[in-house]
Each structure stands twice: as C-alpha cells, then as structure tokens.
Amino acid sequence: MYWKNLTYFGDSMLLLPTALLLAIFLFWKSQRWQTAFGWLLSFGIAGGLVSISKVMFLGFFLGSQSLNFTGFSGHTTLSSVLWPVVMWMISAGRQPWLRRTLITFGYLLPLAVGYSRLQLHAHSPSEVISGATLGALLSTGYLLIQRHTRLDKVSLPQLVCFAALPAVIIFTGQPATTQQFLATLSARLAGIEKPYTRAQLLQAGHAN
C-alpha cells in the first residue's frame, strides 16, 4: 500500500490538473505569458515523448529486449518535470537555503516515484532511469531559461489554495486510465487486434 501511495505522486490523474494549475500560478506570479507557456510546452513535450514511446511499442513492437524497454515510465518522467518546477514556484521570495531545499526535494520526489514503479513491477530499470533523465532534463532546462524571471512570493493562503486541488485528488486516489487509452489507440493505429506486451518482447528475444 505504501508503494501505491507513493507512486500516485506520478499519476496523470494528479499531474495533469496540477500542471494546468501551475501554469495559472506562474502567469499570475510572473506577469509573463512566456513563463506559463514555456512550462506548458515543457510538460507537453514530456507527455508527448512518453506517449510516442509507448505507442511505438504497443502498436508497432518497437522496443528493446536487451534493455527490457517498452517506453519511458510516464509516472517517473512527468513527475520529474512537474515537482521541481512546483517547488521553484512555491519557494519564490523565500530564504535561499529554504528555496534550495525545496527545489532539491522537487528533484528527489520523482526518484522515489520511479523507485516505487520498480517495487510495483510496473517498469524496468531502463524505463525508469530514462524517464527520470528525460524529465529532469526538461525541468532543468525550463528552470535555466527562467533563471532571471522574478516571481512574486506565494503567500500562505495562496499556497493553501494551490495545494487544495492536488490534495483533493490525492484523497480520492483515483488512478488515470492513460495506459489503457494508449493501448487501445496503439492497436487501432497499427491495425492489430491487441496491443503488444512486455512478455511478447521478452519471448521474442529468447526465441532469437
């Protein structure tokens, strides 16, 4: 149960609405549409690359048997993009040591999410490591681009408002059906009856 609770911090059901809410706050606190747009672009690129990698395997059997790779871990990738930027936003205007601590936590939480995916046997190490790398590159790239952007401090009442939506979603604990959607979409795009599975990939490798 612990791993399932931890892995939810990378679930699309939580991350997608939080990413949109973050864009609103970034625009509000920076007064620059570029700051919000850049964030949505970074998050969108991450989601797009994860989806493409999964469709390529599920529909067209493009993966790596030697690496046991069937696509980027979506939980790991998207959480690695989201949480560092969330912590950057909510730590604006606070003491440097606190800001560094919160942003560091923003990078560590996705690693814990990735580890939970391994414990739940949802992904292979290659899928988690590549997802964490991809997500960290995108979030770090965004933060570097925005390093001169001034954000107004998020007050405690504002922070409570920001955290309310994610808290409600976490409380309900309803997981997203993204994987099922991608599996159905992949099969239709490829014109096959059923999407390919990890077991088929590994069996094909043994057969060769």
From TrEMBL:
SUPFAM superfamilies named among the record's database cross-references: Acid phosphatase/Vanadium-dependent haloperoxidase
Boundaries of every Phosphatidic acid phosphatase type 2/haloperoxidase domain copy: 15-143
Listed Gene3D superfamilies: Phosphatidic acid phosphatase type 2/haloperoxidase
Statement: the UniProt record of this protein carries the keyword Isomerase: no
Transmembrane spans: 6-28, 40-63, 69-90, 97-116, 128-145
Keyword vocabulary terms for this entry: Membrane, Transmembrane, Transmembrane helix
Record flagged with keyword Membrane: yes
A Pfam family recorded for this sequence: PAP2
Protein name per UniProt: Phosphatase PAP2 family protein
UniProt organism field: Tatumella terrea
